[in-house]
Structure formats: structure tokens, C-alpha cells
Amino acid sequence: METAIEKFEQERRGTLAPGVLRVRSDGKRVYDEAFKAELVRQCSVPGTSTAATAMAHGINANLVRRWIVQHSARGGPCMPPPALLAVTVSAQPSVSSAVPAAVLSTCWIWAIFVHSMVLST
After folding, report:
1. How many structural domains does the chain have?
2. What's the predicted TM-score (pTM) here?
3. Residue 55 is part of which domain span?
4. Is 48 within 8 Å of 58 (Cβ atoms)?
5. How far is the C-alpha of 22 from the C-alpha of 36, rounded, in Å?
6. Which of 21, 39, 56, 79 is most deeply buried (CB count within 10 A of its CB)?
């Protein structure tokens, strides 16, 4: 036999947002663990925004981020490991070969002109 509280909870579930089991007396929502795990899985897809995923489900992004941290603390695979990129290191070119001589001479002429303008005032 159902109690009045269980009956009330069943009626109320129809009005709750998806994934919400109940609302505590302080207004905080209690979410289903399977719903949390699914959101964490959706956020773990490369290129997916955690904020966009949270907003799509009507949940604060900070709450979803907390679920991600909790999930990874429990040992669950949360985010894929970062990909390593191949890097080639070469010698840095000298300043004289990187900047054409015409540009350097123009800079010197400009500096002399500005300096002479300052002295004449």
C-alpha cells in the first residue's frame, strides 16, 4: 500500500524537470545518478562545451562541472587525455636576417627625425 507521501511524490514527478528526483525543503534539487552520468558523458565528447550542454538541460554549468569533478574522483573516465602534438624546433633566425635592411634604415631615419624635432622645440 502506498503512503500519502509516496503518492504525492509520484504525482509531483510529472511536474519536475527531467532528471530531477525531488526538491528538498531548502529548494535544492536532487538529481538521478544515471542522469548525472549521462550529462558527464555528453560533456566528455571532444569539442563539446560544458556550459552549452548544461544550458540545453536547464542546469547551471557550475553544477555540471562539479559532477564532472566528482565523477573523475570516483575513478570514472571523465575527459579524454590531451592529445600530444608533434613539435619541430629549429634555430631562431638572427635579427639581421629576419628584418630587411631597408626597414632598419627607415627606422633609423625616423628615429633621427623624431629626435631632431624634439630638440628643435
Report:
1. 1
2. 0.52
3. 10-73
4. no
5. 14
6. 39
